[in-house]
Specification:
Order of helices and strands: HEHEHEHEEHHEHEHEH
Helix content: 25-40%
Shape: elongated
Distance between the termini: 50 Å
Number of domains: 1
CATH class: Alpha Beta
Largest sheet: 8 strands, mixed
Number of strands: 8
Radius of gyration: 23 Å
CATH superfamily: 2-enoyl-CoA Hydratase, Chain A, domain 1
CATH architecture: Alpha-Beta Complex
CATH topology: 2-enoyl-CoA Hydratase, Chain A, domain 1
Number of helices: 9
């Protein structure tokens, strides 16, 4: 029926070429987020992904990834949503790496049937890291006594206001190893025989797009526009898909945000502090890759 209607439309009014929906996944990956600092997580991208895969005539969905990583849970949830939609809608997924697809960013990139990177992109960092700060002497210096009461001897494990304990660190490492094993298995499942026989692949190192190609972490080098035009023709059009916004430019419900109520200064202050910490964490993630 669609084909018949298209033929009835005068040729000069017909749209020629293929339209490819494009979804941009950019930023540090973390749960929650705020009005000060939006985060990349499943809640913030689900609507865009649903809309992109709903393009009936599109042969593929293009996903641009630019992320230094973050939450392994949110990374895997985004990955799984992409794969589920690809299977449901029978769409090919082409992932394009911009500046960096590292750690959780690379986990998301694994959702692509093909991964294309810029030669100078940073790719990899297949590992798990946990970071924080310790302030065991700070409270004493400023004259504050901290009081914590627990039921359960391990409820204050890795408390930043207490000296680090070897048993706490050992326990954390067991969790990291389990998460790392999950990540490794995802890479093996998705990249299969394309991976090079190199022990450094799962060491947490990262490489340029050019080196990643030889290691089998990506399938080609190039950019989104050039690659899609090469595959689908010079008349290929690109439709950047984003979440629906309200009349005032804010995202409609369905995209998570940690807002605050007007007339609640303490919430505004808390949100500001949380935003500062999130900004520092994100800055540290990017700085690992010289960005």
């Amino acid at each position: 029926m669609a084909g018949l209607l298209k033929r009835l439309v005068p040729k000069r009014f017909r749209k020629e070429g293929v339209t490819i929906p494009v979804v941009r996944l950019q930023g540090a990956i973390m749960a929650g987020g705020s009005q000060f600092r939006p985060a990349l997580n499943l809640a913030s991208v689900a609507q865009s992904l649903d809309k992109a895969f709903a393009y009936r005539d599109a042969p593929a969905v293009a996903i641009s990834v630019n992320s230094p990583g973050g939450s392994p849970v949110q990374s895997r949830l985004i990955y799984q949503r992409i794969r589920d939609l690809a299977a449901e809608k029978n769409k090919r997924v082409l992932v394009f790496v911009e500046d960096v697809a590292a750690s959780g960013g690379y986990m998301i990139a694994l959702a692509g049937d093909e991964i294309i990177a810029d030669p100078s992109s940073i790719v990899g960092s297949i590992g798990v890291v946990s970071g924080g700060f310790g302030f065991p002497e700070l409270l004493k210096k400023i004259g504050v006594e901290r009081r914590v009461y627990t039921a359960g001897e391990n409820k204050v494990i890795l408390d930043p206001f207490q000296p680090a304990r070897e048993t706490d660190i050992a326990y954390l490492k067991t969790l990291q190893l389990e998460i790392h094993d999950t990540f490794i298995q995802m890479v093996r499942d998705r990249r299969a025989s394309r991976l090079a026989d190199d022990p450094d692949i799962f060491s947490g190192l990262f490489w340029t797009g050019t080196r990643s190609l030889s290691l089998g972490l990506v399938d080609g080098l190039g950019d989104l526009r050039g690659e899609l035009k090469k595959r689908y023709g010079e008349k290929t059009r690109f439709d950047l898909v984003s979440a629906t916004r309200s009349l005032f430019g804010r995202k409609l419900p369905g995209v998570a945000s940690a807002g605050f109520a007007l007339g609640a200064p303490e919430r505004i202050g808390a949100a500001g502090v949380a935003s500062l910490v999130e900004t520092m964490d994100e800055r540290l993630l990017w700085s690992r890759y010289g960005l």
